[in-house]
Amino acid sequence: MGSLGNLASSGTLTQILVGLSRTTILFIVSSGLTLILGVLRIPNIAHGSLYMIGAFVACTVIQTLGGGMPAFWAALTVAPLAVAALGFVLERGFFSYLYDREHLMLLLLTFSFALILGDLVKIVWGAEYRSVTVPAFFQGSAELFGLPLPYYNLFLLLVGPVIAVFLWLVINRTRMGKIALAAAVDSEMVSAVGINVGWVFAFTFVLGCALAGLGGALIAPMVNISLGMDHSLIMEAFLIVIMGGLGNIWGALLGSLIFGLTQSLGILAWPQFGIVFPYLAVVVVLLFRPKGLLRSTW
Amino acid sequence: MNGRRAALLLLLAVLVALPHALPRFYTYVAAIVLLTGLLATSLNLAIGYGGIYQFHHAVFYGIGAYGTALMLTRTALPAPLGFVVGPLAAALLSLAMGVVCVRLSKLYFGMLQISLGSLVWVTVYRWYSFTGGDDGIHGIPLPDALGSTGGAYYFTLAVTVLCLAAMRRIAASPFGKTLEGIRDNPVRSAAVGVDVRAHQLVTLVIAGFFGGVAGTLFVVVDTSVFPDMMFWTFSLEVLIMCLLGGMYTFFGPFAGAAAIVLLRVFASHYTSYWSLVLGVILTLVIIFLPDGILGYAVRRHRAGEARSA
Amino acid sequence: MLRVESAVLSFGGFRAVNGANLEVTAGEIVAVIGPNGAGKTTLFHLITGHLSPDSGRILFKGREISGLPPHVICRRGISRSFQVVNIFPRLTVFENVQIAVLSRERRTFRIFSEVKGMEADEVHSILRNVGLYDRRDAESDLLSHGDQKVLEIAVALGGKPELLILDEPTAGMAPEETERCIRLIRRLSEELGLTILFCEHDIGLVFEIAKRIMVMVRGGTVIQGSCEEVRRNREVQSAYLGETGGC
């Protein structure tokens, strides 16, 4: 009896850790989304497409370089940069002219970008799904209380906090970050003191896009890379951002944790409806705190 | 004014004659155009007239469809009852979600609605034993009169025309005008004594009801339901229909719906990249014609009248 | 008719309204004056329910109204105009006023009757009264700033208020528009017997039309009295009239 209970609880623990590693991806993507939403006020639906593009780019890089660790690191570098470059073009080419539009219009504009980008991915990479294997270094599992936890999940568990610290440093310790933070609260004030808000916005947008690309690159070895992988993710990222408080990076972290954990625990508790729990969590949170858990920058 | 009435009558005559002139597949497409147009018009009541950020309207369409489908497949009750239950279920859900959401405004409203709607979607998506899960329900039995493509088409046409007339009436009522006032300026509306939230709630229920009617019609035309009907990308698509045609006109959303449904059917004959085409068109419309195509035409027309007057 | 008793409202640490007292009796024109940021507009927001006071009481016709939502206060008989133009920009001039009338008549929930032309007589008479009748079918967005400010007043009149509150009715108007607006306010008081509470920057104008004046400085009431009393008051002279002496 005792050993059975033990097994159940260690199973719960691995499930939690797997959930947490998925949380990393959710956090990276939704922190980018919330940055853009908080500073530029753009509800960017194309963020999911950028994530998808990040995954495809990572896949191409890894396949071109023939796998192995260097290829993996190259993918983790190239994918965010490529997506950031695309983001730069979008920001300078379109959004920079449209900041004063209604949110509804911006939402629909980014949706049309998502449509366009989706088909562009289809043109470049084809409609079939692709997959890359986890680099040899990360293959295999660590033994945790007698249950396996894949090394790659362990790696993701480490990446999450690293990104969180990195973002904290960028926002609180760099000039650009501080200005962006100020612009999120009051962009008129920032431009009134003679700072070019346009470039602050561009910087923020590009940073947010790079995060989407990074998220895509990190998920690449874990899933089938396919068209449509953007749809479910962007939805989840949006819910996380809403739950955490629009524009609040720590809110995105908190939201991702809640979302990831309720999902993995939900699956454990009631497999069929496991995926329902995170949605339920979002609704419960919003019923009591309609503007999100943490202070939004709106 | 008379010219307009004549044009509408002509259009109606064409629509009545359609099944006799077109192959079955196109009759089916025409029916889909009608009910999607009804769906977009119902959404526009909230977003175009009321200025309410109804971001997840497809949920009511889906619940209307599922309500009817479940009544027809899981109960032995008479079919017409199922046709009533679907829209009523949608209206009821709309009321429940609305009560929670109207406390908020604009983007926060939309976001909360997306969250609630997604919960509904994911429940339907996973509840295999009741809703059929991600497979949906297929081959829904219909009364004999609606069994043929032609029968389903005429039923859809009749209901759509009726609903559009009702919504047109609502749009032209004191309630509709007040709603436009709330859209333009909720603070001012409250200052002249309008209970903004109560009006918004009623609007949501009306919009949800007619969205549910569209869902019921889908069951009649397609004899199936599936959870993608209420996935949020479809909600965005319906929003786009409103935008494309023009949110500040009554018939704009219908025209936008027709354009998008037809574009999908015909463009997908020639290219597998039809959403690229749609995306580009939309981008251009949003940047250059934020009032939509029909809205732009109406504005030009009015400006022309003003000049000649 | 209206009584504000030591109303207080703070935003964060800042007391925007700090012990304001005000009394308006039926039929008179009362002005609130005070330097920029004295809390005049905030006080009006408190009266019309756009903000709720932290403490203090606001009584209208003997009943407490503080904390009630704006639409309820409007139905009790207080209408207002706003400092910054606040109309229904996509609707015509006629429709702007019509909504106010429909709302007063509790007809806004009628969903199946035809709105066109409804209440036309009353709307037309209001528009004639304020001088916007000729522009009744224009989209209100397209009016000049002065006309939009007048439309503000017309919309407020649509509620057939017992108390009309005007927040800087002539702000941003050209001199001849201001002239017209003053005549309008006078006429509303004399012909319709309206009780009017307004705030205004232009002191000359205030002394010209107000029967009584309340002076607000840093959120609190310095004095409320007749024009003469206010003019003689030392505190006012030093705190306010002295500062802006020129105008």
Overview of the molecule:
The complex is a heterotrimer of chains A (298), B (309) and C (247). With 298 residues, chain A is mainly alpha-helical. Chain A has a domain at 24-229. Chain A has helices at 2-40, 47-65, 68-93, 103-125, 151-173, 175-185, 187-192, 197-219, 229-244, 249-269, 276-288; strands at residues 141-144, 147-150. In chain A, a hairpin with a 2-residue loop joins β1 and β2. In chain A, α10 crosses α11. Mean pLDDT of chain A is 87; it is low at 1-7. By secondary structure, chain B is mainly α. In chain B, strands 1-2 form a two-stranded antiparallel sheet. In chain B, α12 crosses α13. The radius of gyration of chain B is 19 Å and the shape is globular. Chain C is α/β, with parallel strands linked by helices. Chain C folds into two domains: 1-77 and 163-247, P-loop containing nucleotide triphosphate hydrolases (Rossmann fold); 86-160, no CATH class. In chain C, the strands form two sheets. In chain C, strands 6-7-8-3-9-10 form a six-stranded mixed sheet, sandwiched between helices. A four-stranded antiparallel sheet of chain C has the order 2-1-4-5, with helices on one face. In chain C, β4 (55-60) and β5 form a beta hairpin. In chain C, α3 (93-104) runs parallel beside α5 and α4 (120-130) packs across α5. The model of chain C has no long low-confidence stretch (mean pLDDT 87). The chains are: A mainly alpha (298), B mainly alpha (309), C alpha/beta (247). The interface between A and B is large, with 44 and 41 residues.
